[in-house]
Amino acid sequence: MASSGRRGRVVRRALGLALLVAALALLGTSVPTAGAASRPLDVEIAIDTTGSMGPSIQQARENARQLIRDLRRIAPNLRVAIVQFRDSTDAPEY
User: Could you read off the pLDDT tens digit of each residue along the chain, which spans 94 residues?
Assistant: First the structure.
Protein backbone atom coordinates (compact mmCIF):
# COMPACT_ATOMS: atom_id res chain seq x y z
CA MET A 1 0.00 0.00 0.00
CA ALA A 2 2.92 2.35 0.65
CA SER A 3 3.87 2.08 -2.99
CA SER A 4 0.49 3.36 -4.18
CA GLY A 5 0.69 6.30 -1.73
CA ARG A 6 4.12 7.26 -3.04
CA ARG A 7 2.92 6.87 -6.60
CA GLY A 8 -0.03 9.17 -5.83
CA ARG A 9 2.29 11.84 -4.44
CA VAL A 10 4.51 11.60 -7.49
CA VAL A 11 1.51 11.92 -9.81
CA ARG A 12 0.14 14.93 -7.89
CA ARG A 13 3.51 16.68 -7.97
CA ALA A 14 3.90 15.96 -11.68
CA LEU A 15 0.45 17.37 -12.39
CA GLY A 16 1.19 20.47 -10.33
CA LEU A 17 4.47 20.97 -12.13
CA ALA A 18 2.77 20.50 -15.51
CA LEU A 19 0.21 23.15 -14.61
CA LEU A 20 2.93 25.55 -13.49
CA VAL A 21 4.89 24.98 -16.71
CA ALA A 22 1.74 25.58 -18.76
CA ALA A 23 1.07 28.82 -16.90
CA LEU A 24 4.63 29.98 -17.48
CA ALA A 25 4.31 29.13 -21.17
CA LEU A 26 1.12 31.16 -21.39
CA LEU A 27 2.79 34.12 -19.76
CA GLY A 28 5.73 33.87 -22.13
CA THR A 29 9.20 35.21 -21.61
CA SER A 30 9.06 38.22 -23.90
CA VAL A 31 9.00 41.84 -22.79
CA PRO A 32 5.46 42.66 -21.70
CA THR A 33 3.43 44.94 -23.94
CA ALA A 34 1.13 47.68 -22.70
CA GLY A 35 -1.66 46.10 -20.68
CA ALA A 36 -0.01 42.67 -20.50
CA ALA A 37 0.53 42.98 -16.76
CA SER A 38 -3.17 43.54 -16.22
CA ARG A 39 -4.28 40.56 -18.32
CA PRO A 40 -5.67 37.84 -16.06
CA LEU A 41 -4.48 34.26 -16.11
CA ASP A 42 -7.35 31.80 -15.70
CA VAL A 43 -6.58 28.48 -14.04
CA GLU A 44 -9.02 25.70 -13.18
CA ILE A 45 -8.08 23.08 -10.63
CA ALA A 46 -10.13 19.88 -10.71
CA ILE A 47 -10.08 17.63 -7.65
CA ASP A 48 -11.43 14.09 -7.51
CA THR A 49 -13.55 13.97 -4.33
CA THR A 50 -14.99 10.50 -4.86
CA GLY A 51 -14.91 8.05 -1.97
CA SER A 52 -11.75 6.30 -3.11
CA MET A 53 -9.82 9.57 -2.90
CA GLY A 54 -10.71 10.22 0.74
CA PRO A 55 -7.19 9.83 2.15
CA SER A 56 -5.68 12.01 -0.59
CA ILE A 57 -8.10 14.93 -0.59
CA GLN A 58 -6.34 16.87 2.18
CA GLN A 59 -3.01 16.57 0.34
CA ALA A 60 -4.66 17.70 -2.90
CA ARG A 61 -6.10 20.71 -1.06
CA GLU A 62 -2.67 21.64 0.31
CA ASN A 63 -1.05 21.16 -3.11
CA ALA A 64 -3.70 23.38 -4.73
CA ARG A 65 -3.09 26.13 -2.16
CA GLN A 66 0.66 26.02 -2.76
CA LEU A 67 0.18 26.01 -6.52
CA ILE A 68 -2.06 29.08 -6.30
CA ARG A 69 0.51 30.90 -4.12
CA ASP A 70 3.28 30.04 -6.60
CA LEU A 71 1.25 31.14 -9.61
CA ARG A 72 0.24 34.44 -7.93
CA ARG A 73 3.92 35.33 -7.65
CA ILE A 74 4.27 35.27 -11.44
CA ALA A 75 0.69 36.23 -12.35
CA PRO A 76 -0.77 38.71 -9.84
CA ASN A 77 -4.02 38.83 -11.81
CA LEU A 78 -4.56 35.10 -11.43
CA ARG A 79 -8.16 33.94 -11.47
CA VAL A 80 -8.81 30.48 -10.07
CA ALA A 81 -11.76 28.11 -10.32
CA ILE A 82 -11.85 24.91 -8.32
CA VAL A 83 -14.17 22.10 -9.34
CA GLN A 84 -14.72 18.67 -7.93
CA PHE A 85 -15.43 15.31 -9.47
CA ARG A 86 -17.97 13.43 -7.40
CA ASP A 87 -19.71 10.08 -7.40
CA SER A 88 -23.12 10.06 -9.10
CA THR A 89 -24.68 8.93 -5.82
CA ASP A 90 -23.35 11.91 -3.82
CA ALA A 91 -26.01 14.32 -2.60
CA PRO A 92 -26.66 17.05 -3.45
CA GLU A 93 -25.84 16.44 -7.07
CA TYR A 94 -24.72 20.05 -7.59
Answer: 445 666 666 667 767 767 666 666 666 545 455 555 577 889 999 888 888 887 788 888 888 899 899 888 888 899 999 988 887 787 765 5
By the 10 Å C-beta count (0-12 exposed, 13-18 middle, 19+ buried), 78 is classed as middle
Q: Read out DSSP for 1-14?
A: -HHHHHHHHHHHHH
Neighbouring CB atoms inside 10 A of 71's CB total 19
Report yes or no: 56 and 9 within 8 Å, Cβ to Cβ: no
- The residue ranges of DSSP E strands in the chain, in sequence order, are 41-48, 78-85
Distance in angstroms (rounded) separating the CA atoms of residues 68 and 83: 14
Residue 79 carries which DSSP code?
E
- The span from the CA of 75 to the CA of 51, in Å, is 34
In angstroms, rounded to a whole number, what is the distance separating the alpha carbons of residues 72 and 29?
16
